[in-house]
Design a protein that fits this description.
Layout: E1 5-11, E2 14-20, E3 38-48, E4 51-60, E5 64-70, H1 73-93, E6 115-116, E7 121-130, E8 139-149, E9 152-161, E10 164-165, E11 173-186, E12 189-190, E13 193-209, E14 218-237, E15 240-253, E16 256-259, E17 262-265, E18 269-280, E19 284-285
Parallel strand pairs: 2-3
Antiparallel strand pairs: 1-2, 3-4, 4-5, 6-19, 7-8, 7-18, 8-9, 9-11, 10-11, 11-13, 12-13, 13-14, 14-15, 15-18, 16-17
């Protein structure tokens, strides 16, 4: 527990007795409404890492105590000013005598505190397998990054794959060298589970190599696809998710496998299943203050 210096401020008829660590200066009273009058004592102490305990005493024109926990000194300063504003305004408009503690409107409906963002970013690593496409099944490895706002997420995914080697006396290698995918997802959550319904567009650069191609030792092709899918993940610890994904795509542009005078285009559609692990620091809301209780 860390205690600090005592600061006495007075402005516009409001006296604030601020007792807090030196690293947490008293808030300025200039933002309060005019014609407010009263006396308030505030004790701010640090009890744990990143937790601040605030005790706010209304001593005039009524007596009441309000205790709460916040995540930072700046949050404590904002909350104290909001409670002083609401409490003293309620005292001015109350029909009861000043000596009787008024009922603060924040008792039944606490003021909404600002969100304390830790960054809405999400990143992930994954692996997936095309289980229904030609010229053959291909394993993909993915690296994704995106932004998550409430139940919506936008992701940009980088992809690469493992070469497919044909059977026979002449080895032909055929693989997705590099690709990118842009996804938009609706990602509602329920407890530790998070579900996702996604739609997006995919582009991949494919390469074919083979020793029979004397003058053109390699051939580059493109695959462009659109589609959608779903995924489900479970939160293991704060900010870490483990999940499974499923996607179905229609190929708008298909790469072509060529052997001598023969050629074969990739299938018109594909189905992909995979798994992923993700990290994210989502916004967390500050803890709402407790209810006032008279001394």
């Amino acid at each position: 527990m860390v205690l600090g210096a005592v600061v006495l401020l007075s402005m516009s008829g409001v006296e604030l007795d601020w007792r807090a660590p030196p690293s947490c200066p008293a808030p300025t009273l200039s933002s309060l409404s005019a014609h407010l009058a009263g006396s308030v004592e505030v004790d701010v102490v640090t009890e744990e890492v990143q937790r601040w305990s605030v005790a706010l005493h209304f001593t005039a024109p009524f007596r009441a105590l309000r205790e709460l926990e916040v995540g930072s000194c700046e949050e404590a300063r904002r909350v104290v000013l909001a409670l002083i504003e609401l409490g003293l305004k309620a005292a001015q408009t109350a029909a009861a005598p000043v000596s009787v503690a008024p009922t603060l409107p924040i008792e039944s409906e606490p003021p909404e505190l600002p969100t304390t963002p830790h960054g809405p970013w999400v990143v992930g690593l994954g692996a997936a397998m095309n289980v229904a496409s030609s010229p053959g099944t291909t394993t993909r490895f993915t690296l994704s990054g995106g932004l998550r706002f409430d139940s919506f997420e936008a992701d940009l995914v980088a992809r690469t794959g493992i070469p497919i080697t044909s059977a026979g006396p002449v080895a032909i290698e055929w693989w997705p060298v590099l690709g990118g995918e842009l996804l938009g997802c609706w990602v509602p959550s329920s407890g530790r589970l998070r579900f996702g319904i996604c739609a997006g567009a995919l582009a991949e650069w494919w390469r074919q190599t083979g020793p029979w191609m004397l003058f053109f030792p390699r051939r580059d092709e493109a695959l462009v696809a659109i589609g959608g899918g779903f995924r489900v993940s479970v939160s293991l610890v704060a900010g870490v998710e483990l999940g499974l994904s499923f996607a179905a795509r229609v190929h708008v542009v298909r790469p072509v496998v060529t052997f001598d005078t023969l050629s074969s285009a990739a299938s018109p559609a594909s189905v992909e299943v995979g798994g992923f692990v993700g990290w994210g620091a989502e916004p967390t809301e500050s803890r709402a203050p407790g209810h006032s209780r008279p001394e």
